[in-house]
Design goal:
Blueprint (H helix, E strand, L loop, with lengths): L6 H15 L15 E2 L8 E3 L12 H14 L14 H14 L3 E5 L2 H12 L5 E5 L4 H10 L2 E5 L4 H10 L5 E6 L11 H10 L3 E5 L14 H5 L6 E6 L9 E5 L1 H10 L1 H4 L6 H15 L2 H17 L6 E2 L6 E7 L1 H13 L2 E2 L2 E2 L9 E6 L6 H18 L1
Parallel strand pairs: 2-12, 4-5, 4-6, 6-7, 7-8
Antiparallel strand pairs: 1-2, 3-9, 8-9, 10-11, 11-14, 13-14
Length: 394
């Protein structure tokens, strides 16, 4: 009989191991609205933040704050119940119609978070005996959604179309689902969606695209990655988040009308949770308008991306190839990455250190994210500091 383990002792030992490996996570308390100019509770001087996913600078947009105020006056604060009881309001209905039209889909369904959308969609579409084909570096919510479905999870090497084609051809599963991020959150590269869709159609599979980091940034008027590539198909299912470039909160799934109807009846993370406050849906209607009218923001963001890429002169560290606001600098060692992040922080630049298991072992990195709210001067200061730190840390 195995000796009983004191669970608290095990936790204490586990925390010590995380500290020794440089893998313990700690939160920082922000005391100002989301903005490049940020104040933190643990330091007196402000920092310039290069770590939020507020790609268009909408999170603190006054027009959205005003929309929230109007929504609160009309709807109050809570929804009171799940969408399928009494928690589905006219604001939710209007938002879903707007998102469907904006993305060129027949219908859309509003979820509380992107994580809930992903863990709700996959188990509703496939189950035991079926197969999910997933890019190896997909977001954790896609991995968890696949595991919850109880379908066979078949991973293919990152963006390796030949490997995916071989795995699809070898599978005799009655239902097949390919899942991928559009923009990979830790690498910043874009999935080959046209080729993935061709494989999905050839093998009668669904293609679920998580457009968390593309929606609002990519495509005409920020309509997302599918619009960026000009893709339409009844086999496409789009998930987009509303708390990144959109600047508010929540997520949506868009696709054929009957697919959305199926999810309303079968997606557990939609059915068994209280509906998001309708005031947020009201604000999101304004946010979609701002995205549609946001070409100037996207043009400035593109110029910032080019300025950073052209300015960095790294010899040991590696700036990964990315044309998106996610600009990762791979350092490798966990402790060195933490040290560089702290050195940047000491100079008033907040760039987080990303370590395993979020990224592969030996691939710890700084995850730089740019926003249309950044200035050229702020990016120039980050570039100069990184170039100097790499030279002095050698």
């Amino acid at each position: 009989m195995a000796e009983a383990i004191d669970p608290l002792d095990e936790i204490h030992a586990g925390l010590a191991e995380l500290d020794a490996a440089g893998l313990r996570r700690r939160r920082r308390v922000v005391t100002t609205p989301c903005s490049p100019d940020t104040r933190l509770a643990d330091r007196e001087q402000p920092v310039t933040a290069f770590c939020s996913n507020d790609y268009l600078g909408l999170a603190a947009e006054p027009a959205l704050a005003e929309a929230v105020h109007r929504g609160t006056e009309r709807w109050g604060v809570g929804s009171g119940a799940s969408h399928l009881v009494s928690g589905h309001y006219a604001a939710h209905e209007a938002l879903e119609a707007r998102l469907a039209a904006f993305t060129g889909m027949e219908d859309a369904l509003y979820f509380c978070t992107g994580y809930m959308a992903n863990i709700g969609v996959m188990p509703a579409l496939v189950g035991r005996g079926d197969a999910i084909f997933a890019d190896r570096v997909n977001h954790a919510s896609l991995v968890d959604g696949a595991l919850l479905s109880r379908a066979e999870l078949i991973r293919y090497p990152h963006c390796d179309l030949a490997a995916l084609a071989a795995r699809l051809a070898a599978s005799d599963a009655p239902r097949k689902l390919i899942v991928t991020d559009s923009v990979f959150s830790m690498d910043g590269d874009i999935a080959p969606l046209a080729e993935l869709l061709a494989l999905a159609e050839a093998h009668q599979a669904w293609l679920l695209v998580d457009d968390a980091h593309g929606f609002g940034v990519l495509g005409p008027q920020g309509r997302g990655a599918l619009a960026h590539f000009g893709l339409t198909s009844p086999r496409l299912i789009l998930m987009g988040t509303l708390g990144k470039a959109v600047g508010v909160s929540g997520a949506f799934v868009a696709g054929q009308h009957d697919v959305i109807e199926w999810l309303i009846s079968k997606s557990r993370s939609y059915i068994f949770t209280t509906g998001s406050p309708p005031l947020l849906a009201d604000a999101l209607l304004t946010a979609v308008d701002l995205i549609e009218q946001g070409d100037a923001r996207r043009a400035h963001l593109a110029a910032l991306i080019a300025r950073l890429k052209n300015g960095l002169r790294l010899a040991r560290w590696q700036l990964l190839p990315s044309d998106t606001p996610i600009q990762p600098v791979v350092i490798g060692d966990n402790h060195e990455t933490l040290a560089v992040s702290r050195a940047l922080d000491a100079e008033g630049l907040w760039v987080p250190a990303i370590r395993p298991p979020t990224v592969p072992k030996g691939a710890a990195r700084l995850r730089i994210t740019l926003s249309a709210a950044h200035s050229f001067e702020q990016v120039d200061r980050l570039v100069e500091t990184l170039n100097r730190l790499e030279a002095t840390q050698a």
